[in-house]
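Board notes (copied after class):
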Amino acid sequence: MHVAFRKIMLINPSADIRLWEPHSENLGLGYLAAVLRQLGYQVIILDASLFRLGVSATLKRIRDQQPDVIGFRLLEVNMPYAIDLVVRLRREGYSGHITAGGPVATMMESEILKLVPGLDSLMVGEGEETLPELLAALNSSGSPRPSGDPFTRILGLCYREGDVIRANGPRPLIENLDALPFPSRDTLPHILRWGRLPMLITSRGCDGYCVFCCPAAMHTKSPGPKWRSRSAGNIVDEIEDLQRRYNVSHLDFLDDNFFGCGEVGVRRAWDFIEELRRRDLRIKFSIECRVDNVVDEDLFKALRDAGCVEVRLGVESGVQRILDRYGKGTTVEQNREVLLKLKEWGMPVKIGFIPFDPTISFEELTQNAEFLRSVGNPEAFNYNKIRVAVGTPLERMFEKEGRLTKPKPWMRDYTFDNQTVAFLWKVVQGYAMAKRAALQLADGWKVGLADLQALLRGERIG
């Protein structure tokens, strides 16, 4: 059979970021690329956000490559750029198939196709099975526009058929993650040259019920277990592969929850530790989990001894009312005890903390400050006001409370009840932006120097 659509370009569009923003690999695109390459497709990964390519520069890359199919990753922060890219591609006469996936595509589905007429289809949920089926159907039909069979049978696909938008229903979550190939690492040499950490995904999902969690809301749209794990052997196989090919010695585990829920996740953690010992692998790694996963002292000390150098915890608040409001299922005292325990066990911690909620009072803000002081003011990987993602239970809560605003079709915001709190948020936001700008500028100099050194060695940049 003649394959008409064999050259695929997967694009992570630039986001609305003025200065250098620390980035790492886009493993979502890496997994898609790896699956397609196994099937014989030619795949180009274009991480325009990583390389800070604007719309014009991204369009030039597309023109140079002339892909048969383009796939965009849609996030709230890159939607304006993605829309502009699609509009300009169609205006310039691009006639290939354009699809998209990611959080915004999953949560908004047909609304995005109405908003962006140049898009032909969307992948809802995990795309490693949906995208190959879409490409096979395009090749079977010989047309870049979906129509009739076999497109109607592709679960997880939302597509435009003439003037009609069709949604085929959800695709079950992938349960056997070991069956997936290791993600393609096209951008990893740049990441390592810039002194940043490569990432690795050992599991998908989380069994928590936090009302603000976008990944959890995405997974509820597809049937299947919400937390799925790779086996210890499969994880360590990838670590060995990264060490052999890239001399990697420090990894960041990008799981929503390294332990999942219950004995299965704990057993897997022990298996992982034993597998590292058996192969005599020496690495550093960081994990993320829930506060209520921190129970077994022996397990965490064993992880520390195996190379775990950081635990990230979603603590979120030092106010019980707010923890209950977010559906955290934890208490302030439990948060405090766990943070102090990890410190006692010699395990460095970073916390996610959300001090600003639209209903919070000034007195509760001081409770948050007192809580942070009581646990030694740990470093935060997230310190912000509560963020409202489309399709989350939090969005529905705020809408019911009459406080939800919609600055853009894909964005949600809100107003504060207390004007003093609103003013303090602006002060904190201004300080945080200034601090981030300084850090970004310093990081930009570091990256620029690394690129200059690479150019002098004759290496290709970007």
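Comment from the instructor: The CA atoms of residues 254 and 297 lie 23 Å apart. Residues 420-452 form one domain.
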